[in-house]
Design goal:
Layout: E1 11-15, H1 19-31, E2 35-39, H2 42-52, E3 56-60, H3 68-76, E4 86-90, H4 95-103, E5 108-111, H5 116-150, E6 153-158, E7 163-166, H6 168-172, H7 185-189, H8 194-209, E8 216-223, E9 229-240, E10 246-255, H9 257-266, H10 277-293, E11 298-307, H11 309-316, H12 318-333, E12 341-346, E13 349-357, H13 360-374, E14 378-380, E15 383-385, E16 388-395, H14 403-419, E17 425-427, H15 430-452, E18 455-464, E19 469-481, E20 485-487, H16 493-498, H17 502-523, E21 531-536, H18 538-542, H19 546-557, E22 564-569, H20 577-589, E23 593-599, H21 605-611, E24 616-619, H22 621-625, H23 631-646, E25 650-654, H24 659-667, E26 672-674, H25 684-701
Helix pairs in contact: 2-3, 10-14, 11-12, 17-19
Length: 702
């Protein structure tokens, strides 16, 4: 069909077996501004229609071979011809003939003799109606295509009759057959998830009666044909009658299950399936709002740090560690109420939002149940694993403003519990907050100290007991605080460890110790036999750049590798024997000596001697200082020395306080002593002064 609305003349097909009538009609219609095609019979009309596609047909009824009824019916069967106006013209005026004309698809009926003025009006009216119908059809097709493209299901609700039309797509997206859903609002709302129904109905009510909700938009779950629930986004708008009352609503339904699943993955821990930090904080924030509205509605947040989880990961593998995490989650959940929220923050930390709290005692009773449950062993792929937890408690009665503040204070209380010996719980109080602020200030000052190079090294001599000669020094860290003066490592290293600052501090220590030792070696020939011992933390050993740091310190200073000893505290080795072996072997390959420090105070000391490739055993000073009393300490030191020698290791005894200690150590054939009996830790300048005095005495003697 031509678009006659834009000014194009309509094309009319005139069909009549009388040539004179065809010519008259053609002339008249041409004068009326129309383009006319003619056909003498039905067969020619069909062929002409398919070839020329007219906008309207003026068709005589009485024709030989194929009359107008048959021709009209045949035209209507052609593709795209169902909406073309067909006006049938005949002298017949009986009711039966007229009804038959309409039955075969005629658009209108014109009686002969023809009223020419009436014919023009009827044709133009038929053309306008046809064009309007074509435009409407195109609009509907565009709407249908858009709806299919958006993949939305449509609904239309007559509020007066409570009749709802659901589009085929609405039903199909939920897996329902066309006739499986009724036409009442109950057929819709009864499928909405019970937990969501009140919210959906409330949103619809607000949209219908409140101007503040001009459009309906609500996310909810709805039951599918297989019994499962899918998440959908329902949008709609109401239509009002002349009196301003809502009479009808129409809208769409979009399947958002995939998005909801993705959101759930973003808000849940991938290992345990529990809410993650973001979701947990959101729920705590929601609970805080409720507490502000209802002052006596209290809650608590527990932060649980699982002790020894890293040991399980290192010894049994991360897959087993994940099994333990899931088991922990299930066991903790079994102790909680239906409205409490358990989450995993990450690593070895779990949090609990205790939704209803009456007093501190009710919370501590829950915590004791949790610790009792966790103390029972886990059976993991043939291994029996026992864990404990340090738990911090923060109560909402402290007047919190944000969820992050509550979590922060529970974390502070947990660290206090852990510092007191693990497997404990602590309730947060303001003293902890003050202490936490102090620690935060200290951490800030430590970061500044690294940048301002406020750290210093002091050196404690290490003496060969057989010859009483100096063989090296242990480099010990100090902090020259700009306000508090010289600070010992015990006052700041724990904070540095928690803040992740041990690696940059240790990097400086290694570089400075190597530089100083090399400088002394260049000053005195005697110093070429010396070595410097540097303590290395677990964080440094786990640093992927540690070997590069060691190589850089030796290269920059020019110190031979054999003159550096890396000391590893026995407590540092716990749970790290596999990675530690690789690191120690790499140091050996470089010619660097390795020493196990504080030997004897750990529960696995002797196993570490057997498993790890150490060159030196450094006996903890607590055993050496107790030798003068005789008894067990003396025998323990003897056993340690003998064991080390049997394994081909050198022994260094710390804590030598008097000459009796030195005598006993010599009798055991202990190679090296270190302690106050020889010298206190001293500044580099003091070492140089001591050497100057020694050289002066040697010169005088000569």
């Amino acid at each position: 069909m031509h678009d006659v609305s834009g000014g194009n003349p309509p094309r009319i097909l005139v069909v009549d077996d009388d040539e004179s009538i065809r010519e008259v009609l053609a002339a008249f219609l041409s004068d009326a501004g129309m383009v006319v095609e003619t056909a003498a019979d039905g067969m020619e009309a069909l062929e002409m229609f398919q070839r020329r596609r007219p906008d309207a047909v003026l068709l005589d009824v009485m024709m030989p071979f194929r009359d107008g009824y048959e021709t009209c019916f045949a035209i209507r069967q052609l593709p795209g011809a169902e909406y073309v106006p067909v006006l049938m013209a005949t002298a017949l005026d009986d009711t039966e003939s007229i009804e038959r004309a309409y039955e075969v698809g005629a658009s209108n009926f014109i009686s002969k003799p023809i009223n020419w003025t009436n014919l023009t009006h009827q044709l133009r009216y038929a053309l306008r109606s046809s064009q309007a119908f074509a435009d409407l059809r195109k609009s509907e097709e565009r709407y249908a295509l858009a709806a299919r493209g958006a993949n939305d299901g449509l609904w239309d609700w007559d509020l007066g009759t409570d009749e709802v039309h659901f589009s085929p797509r609405w039903k199909a997206m939920l897996g329902y057959a066309e006739d499986a859903v009724g036409t009442k609002s109950g057929d819709w709302f009864d499928r909405v998830h019970p937990e969501d129904r009140a919210r959906v109905e409330g949103a619809i009510t607000r949209h219908l009666v409140e101007t503040s909700a001009p459009e309906l938009e609500v996310e909810h779950r709805i039951r599918a044909a297989d019994g499962s629930y899918r998440w959908v986004l329902c949008r709609g708008v109401a239509i009002h009658d002349a009196r301003g009352r809502p009479s009808r609503m129409a809208g769409s339904q979009t399947d958002i299950s995939a998005r909801k699943q993705a959101e759930a993955q973003l808000l849940h821990d991938p290992v345990t399936g529990l809410p993650n930090r973001s979701l947990f904080l959101d729920r705590v924030a929601h609970r805080l709002k409720l507490t502000r509205k209802k002052a006596d509605s209290l809650f608590a947040v527990l932060l649980m740090d699982v002790d020894r989880l890293q040991v399980v990961n290192d010894s049994l593998g991360h897959d087993t560690g994940d099994l333990l995490l899931r088991g922990l989650g299930e066991r903790i959940q079994s102790c909680l109420g239906p409205t409490d929220t358990l989450s995993r923050l990450g690593g070895d930390e779990f949090t609990v939002l205790v939704d209803e709290v009456t007093d501190v005692a009710s919370v501590t009773r829950l915590v004791e149940r949790l610790q009792s449950a966790l103390n029972k062993s886990f059976q993991l792929e043939g291994h029996e694993v026992v864990v404990t937890a340090s738990i911090g408690i923060a109560l909402s009665s402290s007047g919190y403003e944000t969820a992050e503040d509550v979590l922060r204070d529970s974390d502070t209380a947990m660290h206090r519990a852990k510092a007191l010996g693990k497997a404990r719980y602590q309730v947060f109080d303001q003293d902890m907050h003050a202490q936490a602020l102090t620690v935060l200030q200290l951490e800030s000052e430590l970061r500044a100290a690294i940048e301002r190079q406020e750290f210093r090294l002091v050196y404690q001599p290490m003496v060969a007991l057989a010859s009483n000669t100096l063989v090296g020094f242990e480099a010990l860290l100090r902090w020259q605080h700009p306000e508090r003066g010289l600070a010992s490592p015990a006052s700041f290293l724990p904070v540095a460890a928690d803040a992740g600052l041990l690696v940059p501090i240790g990097r400086w220590v290694l570089g400075e110790a190597c530089r100083q030792m090399r400088e002394w070696q260049e000053q005195w020939d005697e110093a070429r036999r010396w070595s410097v011992s540097v303590n290395v933390s677990a964080s440094e050993l786990a640093d992927p750049d540690f070997l590069a740091t060691v190589d850089g310190a030796l290269s920059d200073s020019g110190l031979p590798a054999k003159c550096l000893t890396v000391e590893v505290a026995e407590a540092t080795l716990r749970g790290h024997s596999g990675p530690m072996r690789e690191m120690l072997m790499a140091l050996h390959e470089r010619g660097i000596q390795t020493s196990i420090d504080d030997f004897g105070i750990g529960s696995s000391s002797f196993r570490h001697l057997n498993d790890l490739p150490f060159d030196v055993v450094k006996i903890d000073g607590s055993f050496v200082t107790g030798m003068e009393k005789g008894g067990k300490h003396l025998e323990i030191v003897k056993a340690m020395v003998a064991l080390a020698h049997s394994l081909g290791m050198t022994v260094v005894a710390e804590g030598s306080e008097n000459r009796q200690d030195v005598l006993k150590l010599r009798q055991m054939a202990c190679e090296v002593g270190q302690g106050h009996v020889f010298a206190q830790p001293m500044e580099g300048e003091a070492v140089e002064e001591l050497m100057s005095q020694k050289l002066a005495r040697k010169a005088d003697a000569s």
